[in-house]
Amino acid sequence: MPHPTILEGYEKTIPGAAERILVMAESSMKHKHQYDSALLKASEDQIKRGQVLGFLIGLATISASVYFATIGYPVLAGIVAGSTLIGLVSVFVIGRITESKE
Asked: What is the pLDDT along the chain (102 residues), one digit of tens a residue?
């Protein structure tokens, strides 16, 4: 927004210019608010999607580990469960550390 004296100068030079400048500023602010709102919603959707996918990965890993254990491969079951558990925990820990730095 220009200073009121500058705005007055625009109005003297071109009648109605001050109103047009104010409308333009309001329009710009409205657009910025809509953009910020859309960005926030997209971020929330991404977080929800990540949580659902993480849950599905965990569920699939538990199922695979139980299956491997029941068919006689307990070491493989432990490796699959342990590596996935370490991966999921590290993703959450790294996410929290990154979040706290921001």
From this structure: 778 888 888 889 999 998 999 999 999 999 999 999 999 999 999 888 988 888 898 899 889 999 999 999 999 999 999 988 888 888 877 876 766 666
Predicted TM-score of the model (pTM) = 0.61
Provide the residue range defining the domain that includes 86.
Answer: 4-101
Quick one: which of 47, 38, 10, 43 has its CA closest to 25? 10
Q: Using alpha carbons, select from 5, 7, 6, 39 the residue that is nearest to residue 23.
A: 7
- How confident is the model at residue 100, as a pLDDT? 66
d(CA 70, CA 86): 22
Query: Cα(100)–Cα(32) distance, rounded to whole angstroms?
Result: 26
What's the rounded Cα separation, in Å, for the pair 26 and 30? 6
Residues 6+ apart with CB under 8 A from 54: 88, 91
